[in-house]
Design a protein that fits this description.
alpha/beta, nine-stranded mixed sheet, four-stranded parallel sheet, 19 helices
């Protein structure tokens, strides 16, 4: 059986998993040595939601219309909503595999609550409100989770920003063991073509223990009782990887990925304090102590924004004229990027415009995305601090910020040889999974439209990525499999059926079959689509003047 298992480890960081501690992680190292490994560049911004969804759809946050955990539902000031699975319109890997009769097991992947139907089993991720909710598909398997976990199946630890470090450590360790046990139990109980889990433990522990374990952190103290917590946890995760690889079976292809990494947090920038000092934000009254900024505290007629600008004709009480919008954005960008630490020293802040970093921008994006200190500093939303800088997180103990690079390791199995690189892109993962299972890419269109040229170029790209690819060109097939056939509708249909038959054989054996043939009749193309299942049709559109100019076979001249 051709099977692919993806082990997702939220926030597993490359400087430890692929560098400092790799030699102490024999199971991960074995996968590295058998396949490919490197850093995985995450989304902008590198945050759990929507990074995992971007990974599984190959769509960036702008295309998804999801820019973080909370997104604006309208231009009203209090319209922020949590982006759960209902916000996702794009097809995930398991959606596509389900449509092509392949069975999937999906456990713990973020942004999968509420669960949607698939061909297989889905247990939604940490955004599930509680075990009393319907968080599995089919619903009936919810009752089997605790048994499969060998105890309580834990959706997520309750509070990872806590001073009770011992309790946090114990709860994360138990959660990780239980979730891996449950995944392996379901994996062995059925013949899934694709199986994926995401474990949140690395993220929770790194946010809670970074200062104790990283000698470069400003608060690190050698010899502290938690000094080896992250090191020991990584080794324990490696043991879980080993058990999972064994449970998956010898011929299984295994991928280990993380959505982003982690790094030391230098401090936090009180963005709303800075905006007030620069005249961009006005409160109805100043709080007497630090509090979280809420919409009702703001004098909206004089508010220029946080990451959202207050634009006239867009927001209810907008005060920035549309003609001034770009000038204000540029002014803010310059001011934020010039912002330094307490001593005025530059911290390397970067500011992005959504339309410049996303392929498409849907729904209501932020007007600006800010990496304070290039992600060594985080944004603090409180007001009443009396200054711009904090050295502690304003929402609870937390000493780590996200690193834009996660981890990618793939031992593909068989004779596959994926593309080697020092850094991969998060958007590469979904196409790599889909091509692993083989499919037919069918180019159709008029003579001279570019079908054969495109087919050969796609073939070159996929071969560079280590995929098994074959091209069936209509002219070549006529010279070999279809000698003697003419160009009547009956003969054309016979030729296209023969191409479809070969494509089906290749696709069934996990080869990417690329067909390039004039196939003008939809009925016969649909017949092949039904036969093959994993079938993608591409129509090559070209205007008649260009076709006449190209005319590689002299057909238009004869006409």
């Amino acid at each position: 059986m051709n099977r692919l298992v993806v082990i997702g480890l939220d926030c597993l960081t490359p400087q430890w998993a692929l560098e400092a501690w790799l030699d102490e992680m024999p199971n991960l190292k074995a996968l590295v040595e058998k396949g490919v490994a490197g850093r995985l560049r995450s989304t902008i911004p590198p945050i759990t939601v929507p990074a995992w969804t971007a990974m599984m759809t190959s769509q960036d946050p702008g295309m998804l219309g999801v820019y973080g955990f909370r997104n604006r539902a309208s231009y009203e000031y209090d319209s922020l909503q949590v982006a759960n699975a209902s916000a996702i319109q794009a097809s995930t890997v398991w959606n596509i595999l389900s449509r092509n009769r392949l069975r999937s097991l999906v456990m713990g992947v973020p942004q999968t609550y509420p669960p949607k139907p698939l061909n297989g089993i889905l247990v939604s991720g940490f955004m599930t409100p509680g075990k009393e909710a319907t968080f599995t598909y089919p619903e009936g398997i919810k009752g089997l989770l605790d048994q499969a976990a060998g105890g309580e199946y834990v959706i997520d630890v309750k509070n990872f920003r806590t001073e009770d470090k011992s309790a946090l450590l114990d709860s994360v360790k138990e959660m990780t063991k239980a979730r891996f046990r449950a995944f392996r139990a379901f994996l062995k109980a059925d013949e899934f073509d694709f199986a994926m889990m995401v474990e949140m433990g690395p993220d929770r522990l790194q946010h809670g223990f970074w200062r104790f374990c990283d000698p470069t952190h400003r608060l690190y103290e050698a010899g502290n009782p938690y000094e080896d917590v992250l090191h020991d946890y990584y080794l324990a995760v490696d043991e879980e990887i080993g058990r999972t690889v064994e449970a998956a079976g010898e011929q299984t292809s295994v991928m280990v990925v993380s959505d982003h990494g982690a790094q030391a947090m230098e401090g936090a920038i009180c963005i709303n304090e800075w905006l007030q000092s620069q005249g961009y934000l006005k409160l109805k009254e100043q709080p007497s102590e630090p509090v979280r900024l809420t919409a009702d505290m703001i004098d909206w007629e004089h508010y220029y924004g946080r990451l959202f600008l207050n634009v006239a004709g867009r927001e209810p009480q907008g005060c920035i004229a549309k003609a001034d919008y770009e000038a204000v954005r540029e002014e803010l960008k310059a001011g934020l990027e010039a912002l330094g630490d307490e001593e005025g020293r530059p911290i390397g802040t970067r500011v992005f415009r959504p339309e410049e970093v996303y392929r498409e921008v849907k729904r209501i994006p932020p007007d600006m995305i800010v990496y304070f200190g290039d992600l060594h500093w985080r944004s603090a939303g409180t007001v009443g601090q009396g200054g711009w800088h904090l050295r502690e997180n304003d929402t609870g103990p937390d000493d780590a910020n996200h690193l834009p690079d996660g981890v990618f390791v793939w031992s593909p199995g068989g004779d596959r040889s994926p593309r080697r690189a020092e850094r991969y892109q998060i958007y590469d993962i979904a196409p790599s999974i889909l091509t692993f299972f083989g499919f037919t890419l069918w180019f159709t269109g008029l003579s001279g439209a570019g079908k054969s040229t495109l087919a050969q170029r796609v073939r070159e790209i996929l071969l560079e990525r280590g995929m098994k690819v074959e091209v069936l060109d209509g002219d070549v097939v006529r010279q070999n499999l279809s000698k003697g056939l003419g160009f009547s509708k009956e003969d054309r249909d016979t030729n296209i059926r023969r191409i479809g038959f070969v494509c089906n054989l290749l696709t069934r054996n996990d080869v990417v079959a690329i067909a390039a043939a004039i196939s003008p009749y939809r009925a016969i193309r649909d017949e092949n689509r039904k036969l093959i299942g994993r079938f993608v049709e591409v129509y090559c559109k070209c205007d008649l003047d260009t076709l006449k100019e190209r005319d590689p076979k002299g057909l238009y001249e004869k006409a």
